Amino acid sequence: MRTFVSAVATVLGVLLAAVAVPAIWLDRSIVQEDGFVGLAAPLGKNAEFQQQLAAAAVGTIDTSAVPGFLSDLVQPVLEDAATSLSGLPGYPAAWEETLRKSHRLSFPEAAAEPDPSGSVSSLTLDVAPLVALGAGEISRATGLPLDPPGETLINVGQPEQREWTERLATYAPMGYMLAAGSGIAFLLALVAARRRWTVLVGAGIGGLLLAGLWAAGAQVGAAQALAADTGNEVANMFRDEFVAAANADFAAWTAGAAITGGLLLLLGIVAGISSRRRPRATR
Fold first, then answer.
1. pTM here?
2. How far apart are alpha carbons 85 and 101 in whole angstroms?
């Protein structure tokens, strides 16, 4: 009976961990604002993406208030701003604020402020901070006042993906409870086991299998995300870079699981060999 309880508890611990670890990663890296910003911030250092994003942001600046006879003066300044925006001292802060505003649109339930747009698609970029930075630079160069908008949206993904962001915000935090349940199950397995090294071996094998499954699942998820065309060149570039960054970040988690599983398996094997030798030494 003890062996049966230990085996069931070990399997239950592995199954709970199979869901808990990806859920915790999603919560920490996607649902939580700081995690999302930390994951996506390096994208702003990609030279090609910087150029495309700057051009898209500057292209939304409203110059209708500029008198017609000054349009020839403003146009070269706009073009120059599009190429030099990423080199301005305020660009890193504007890019980070862009990510934070974008996250609050995509995950309104996780933010303190309501969604002002009513309905947006997943990972919508609000480049208003970059537009404001470009408008300020143009105003300084021309002396003409420009009023940047409070919101400038670039959709990344399809409208139906909105439901997935809401589900992530709701269910991803449950991963911590599942992880606690997994830990309790493994503790129960150790207490009930007649040979505790078998629990270590089982947990180690489970960890190695889960690492492989998570790695394969991440590749499938990345392929599906990359296959969805946003219809916008800047959005497609952000999607490609973000998916690559997310995949690399989760790969570190799967590698950690594989290392942990391997160590548990090795520890279990060593403990098993030692337990078999111990009775012989006492004779």
1. 0.82
2. 19
Q: Is the pLDDT of residue 209 over 60?
A: yes
Query: Over pLDDT 90: what percentage of the chain?
Result: 37
Highest mean pLDDT: which range of 123-137, 162-176, 206-220:
206-220
Q: Which of 102, 103, 95, 98 is nearest to 29 (CA)?
A: 103
Q: How far apart are CA 251 and CA 219, in angstroms?
A: 10
pLDDT at 75 over 70: no
Question: What local confidence, expressed as pLDDT, does residue 48 receive?
Answer: 79
Q: What is the pLDDT of residue 213?
A: 96
215 exposed, middle or buried (CB, 10 Å; 0-12, 13-18, 19+)?
A: middle
Give exposure, 230-263, as e/b (b: 16+ Cβ within 10 Å): bebebbbbbbbbbbebbbebbeebbeebbebbee
Instruction: Tokens for 259, please give them.
Output: 């290392």
Q: What is the mean pLDDT of the chain?
A: 82
